[in-house]
């Protein structure tokens, strides 16, 4: 069984069971960054990929009244989210499986990309890009080291890895995204102290817009 199948069939549920007591509406770096740029209002359509039970979306809805959708593979997380936050529309699928087209003003992908099997990474990135409207915003939070590292996933005995790399660069190199901000912190302590390569976590805010210049304008 491959990495995609493992997370799809059972590990997403097991992750939710291990962490469900912590998944309550609260402020975090993602929300603080969105607040700083004042991006949301009641008409904003927001998608979170890997939303668990929708706890972060629930906080955004509470603050701004925005229209919220959640993509989450865990059946248990989706059931919990539907029970607790009926104003969120849930899709029990993965980033690789979703198929939205120019629907959202904001897409949040936090602590997701490092789980994805490398053979599916570009498919997931393509689906994320397709979901976001031109002029919309993308938040990527992950272990965005400036180099490439993989670690065995210690909760599973099978050969499964998590992957660290500068995920924002996949979008930036396309010429269709402008980086507005990145906030890096210690993932273990959730503080801005004692940051090193083992705990380095970075939340990046990108705007989707064409960056290409016409050749006759620059040459």
Automatic annotation (TrEMBL):
It comes from the Bacteria. PANTHER family: METHYLTRANSFERASE TYPE 11, TRANS-ACONITATE 2-METHYLTRANSFERASE-RELATED. Keywords: Methyltransferase, Transferase. GO terms for biological process: methylation. Residues 47-140 form the Methyltransferase type domain. It comes from Hydrogenobacter hydrogenophilus. One of its GO terms (molecular function) is S-adenosylmethionine-dependent methyltransferase activity. It holds the Pfam family Methyltransf_11. This is Methyltransferase domain-containing protein. The keyword Transmembrane does not apply.
């Amino acid at each position: 069984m491959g990495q995609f199948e493992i997370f799809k069939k059972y590990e997403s549920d097991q992750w939710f069971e291990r962490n469900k007591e912590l998944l309550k509406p609260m402020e975090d770096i993602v929300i603080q960054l969105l607040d700083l740029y004042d991006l949301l209002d009641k008409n904003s359509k927001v998608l979170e990929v890997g939303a668990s039970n929708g706890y972060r979306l629930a906080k955004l809805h509470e603050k701004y009244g925005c229209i919220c959708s959640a993509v989450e593979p865990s059946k248990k997380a989706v059931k919990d989210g539907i029970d607790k936050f009926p104003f969120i529309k849930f899709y029990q699928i993965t980033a690789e499986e979703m198929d939205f087209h120019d629907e959202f003003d904001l897409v949040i992908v936090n602590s997701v990309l490092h789980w994805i099997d490398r053979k599916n990474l570009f498919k997931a990135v393509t689906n994320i890009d397709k979901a976001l409207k031109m002029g919309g915003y993308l938040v990527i939070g992950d272990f965005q080291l400036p180099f490439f590292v993989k670690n065995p996933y210690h909760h599973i005995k099978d050969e499964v890895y998590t992957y660290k790399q500068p995920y924002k660069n996949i979008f930036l190199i396309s010429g269709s995204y402008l980086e507005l901000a990145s906030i890096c912190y210690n993932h273990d302590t959730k503080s801005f102290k004692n940051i090193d390569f083992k705990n380095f976590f970075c939340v990046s805010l990108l705007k989707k817009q064409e960056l290409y210049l016409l050749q006759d304008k620059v040459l």
